[in-house]
What does this fold into?
Amino acid sequence: MANTVIGSSIVIDGEITGEEDLEILGTVKGKIALKENLRVEKSGVVEADIATTTVTISGQVTGNILAGDKVELTAEGRMVGDIKSPRILIADGASFKGNIDMDA
Amino acid sequence: MADQPCIIGKAITIQGNVSGNEDLVVEGRIEGAIALSNHLTVERAGVVEADVEVEDLTVNGAVRGDIRATRSITINADARVVGNVAAPRIVIEDGALFKGRIEMQFDLPEGVRAD
It folds into this structure.
């Protein structure tokens, strides 16, 4: 389980930075910069530019993602924005609109 | 989802506004403002530099800012708090460090002036 959990009724407007896993069930607007793994769960809504190592999206993300390792869009995930990452997975059923850049 | 408490971990910093309707535990750092209709706990490693509006607040760590609680504020033995606090019930434990103004909302007996 992630160390940090943003609960489903929590709204954060601003910037989140850190060096540990983050799980979002609520709403985050602004900017996320993380050295570890980010999970946007089914109820999670993120309107932010994201810089992290890996991202798993099962919720809704609007913004650009820069991931050092991997971006995974699961069947429930919806994303609008550009992704730059060496590994990108998009599951059957996911919604995505934007550019993908896999240049490492 | 209520079985999963909302935790801001040790290595996380949030700059901005945090609001919500559930309990929040801070082990990391929050700068900005917090508005919560439930219980906020600042753990020993936690640092909050924000104006806080909550129902209940428990401090074991450090808080700088103005605090307004609709029910209670508990400042435990290891806590450090700088700011003005207002709540119907305020507890400061022996060993806690506090600097600021305290305002408890209560009624004095008839005929006694509050000021």
